[in-house]
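FAQ

Q: What does a record look like?
A: Structure on top, sequence underneath. For example:
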C-alpha cells in the first residue's frame, strides 16, 4: 500500500515509540514524502534530540534509516 507521510507523522515516530513508528517499518507499506521534510528534521534537530533523549549520533542514524525507507517526492511533482 502506498502512503504519503507528513512531518507530523515522522516527528511523532521519532519522538516516541508509537503505532506510527511501527507502520514506518512495516514492509507492506511504501511511503512517500515531500523533499523538504528532511530539511525540517535538520532544522528541528535539537528539539527532537531533547524530546527523545537520543544522542546526536542516534538522531542521524535514524534519519538515514528513514531516508532509505521513505521515497522523496519533488515538490514540482506534487502540483
Amino acid at each position: 500500500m502506498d502512503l504519503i507521510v507528513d512531518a507530523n507523522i515522522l516527528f511523532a515516530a521519532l519522538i516516541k515509540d508509537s503505532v506510527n513508528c511501527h507502520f514506518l517499518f512495516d514492509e507492506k507499506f511504501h511511503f512517500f514524502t515531500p523533499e523538504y521534510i528532511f530539511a525540517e528534521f535538520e532544522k528541528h534537530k535539537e528539539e527532537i534530540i531533547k524530546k527523545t533523549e537520543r544522542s546526536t549520533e542516534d538522531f542521524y542514524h535514524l534519519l538515514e534509516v528513514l531516508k532509505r525507507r521513505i521515497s522523496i517526492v519533488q515538490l514540482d511533482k506534487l502540483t
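Q: Is there anything notable about this one?
A: The longest helix spans residues 56-69.
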